[in-house]
Automatic annotation (TrEMBL):
Cofactor: Zn(2+)
GO molecular function: metal ion binding; oxidoreductase activity
Alphabetized UniProt keyword annotations: Metal-binding, Oxidoreductase, Zinc
Organism expressing this protein natively: Dictyobacter alpinus
Protein name per its UniProtKB record: Alcohol dehydrogenase
Lineage: Bacteria, Bacillati, Chloroflexota, Ktedonobacteria, Ktedonobacterales
Length: 371
């Protein structure tokens, strides 16, 4: 048996339980010792029973989808991994519909049917447990020098996927695409990140690395630990408590890209109104029913059409973005060796996981240490 942190939807409980230890049953599988699991808003929503489903007939769902693990055993057909390797596993698994072209092409993050499964979220147990068995094809190798920060990979994949899509959209502007450097495709453009949580801060690091003049717009007044990180990476921190959206527009100038990572619909819409011509607005979080959109649809449509703007939503990530996130974590670590680890506020033992899941401790990123 292994230990696991699980949510019981029927009884509305979150408990540290004993769970049967998994074993390799297929030659393409890998057995993993889970080292760390990040806690995020999705986990807290599941604990609040807003969504999330246990697998099959199970009465509980093992939580956790942001994981770092060590390989302990490999199936006989696995050649790319060996015991002792560090890996990060993907979250979403493809649907079984042969007509779903996205899943058939290993792009389950764009699944057409919506019947995909997700580790720790939808019909699959998660990683907040000692041991897991997974298919080798869903694992990504991690250099040993990234051991202390690799648990940030999955949150970074959200920004990686967003940036890829933004650049693909901007390929519609050939004069811009031809002028942009492959190393710094954002050179000459301005990006505004809404929110200074882990997804926002990692996104800001990515946009700075890509050459964007980057601003982070968040609630708390500076100075604070988040504003310190923003300034340390060469971006600009602005507080919504002291800087109105109109003042934000004056300070930034032309806003070419907005990366929303704060789950605050009214503020997001206010910023959307100030998006520049040909600009892109990327939503990464769902909106709370407590904060509904208040939008003049006629005016919004006019802006979108007359200014050639684009709005996209993005969630989860595919294999390429996981690999890119690991590579960028290495770049971040070299560029800001004191800053990247500062995103991790605290590591907790499994015995304290419940309080971290139910409460929202201050700081930035909270990690549950498994091994």
């Amino acid at each position: 048996m292994v230990k696991a942190i699980a949510v019981f939807p029927r009884t509305k409980e979150i408990r540290l339980i004993e769970h049967p230890e998994p074993h390799i049953t297929q030659p393409t599988q890998v057995k993993l010792r889970i080292l760390e699991v990040g806690v995020c808003g999705t986990d807290r929503h599941i604990c609040a029973l807003a969504f999330g489903n246990p697998p099959g007939e199970s009465e509980y769902l093992i939580l956790g989808h942001e994981a770092l693990a060590e390989v302990v055993e490999v199936g006989e057909a696995v050649t790319q991994f060996r015991p002792g390797d560090l890996v990060v596993p993907e979250v979403r698994r493809p649907c079984s519909d042969p007509a779903c072209r996205a899943c058939q092409a290993a792009h389950q993050d764009f699944c057409y049917t919506g019947t995909y499964t997700e580790r720790g979220i939808q019909n699959l147990h998660g990683y907040m447990t000692n041991m897991v068995v997974d298919e080798a094809s869903y694992l990504h190798p991690v250099p040993s020098e990234l051991r202390e920060v690799a648990v940030l990979t999955e949150p970074l994949t959200i920004a990686e996927k967003a940036l890829v899509q933004a650049l693909q959209i901007q390929a519609r502007l050939p004069w811009r695409t031809n002028a942009a450097s492959s190393d710094e495709p954002g050179r000459g453009l301005r990006a505004v990140v809404l929110g200074a949580g882990p997804i926002g801060l990692l996104g800001a690091m990515l946009f700075v690395t890509a050459g964007f003049e980057t601003y982070v717009y968040s609630r708390a007044q500076a100075p604070n630990e988040k504003s310190t990180i923003v300034e340390a990476i060469g971006a600009t921190y602005l507080s919504s408590e002291t800087t109105s959206v109109e003042q934000l527009k004056e300070r930034v100038g032309h806003i070419d890209l907005v990366y929303e990572a704060m789950d605050a619909a009214p503020l997001a819409i206010d910023v959307l109104r100030n998006l520049h011509r040909n600009g892109i607005f990327i939503f990464t979080s769902g909106t709370s029913p407590d904060h509904p959109f208040n939008i003049d649809t006629a005016a919004a449509t006019q802006h979108l059409t007359s200014k050639n703007q684009a709005i996209i939503g993005t969630v989860n990530a595919g294999p390429a973005t996981f690999q890119s996130a690991i590579e960028h974590l290495g770049i971040f670590q070299q560029r800001w060796p004191q800053v990247l680890p500062a995103l991790i506020t605290h590591r907790y033992p499994m015995e304290q996981a419940k309080e971290v899941l139910l409460a929202k401790p201050g700081g930035i990123k909270h990690i549950v240490s498994i091994a």
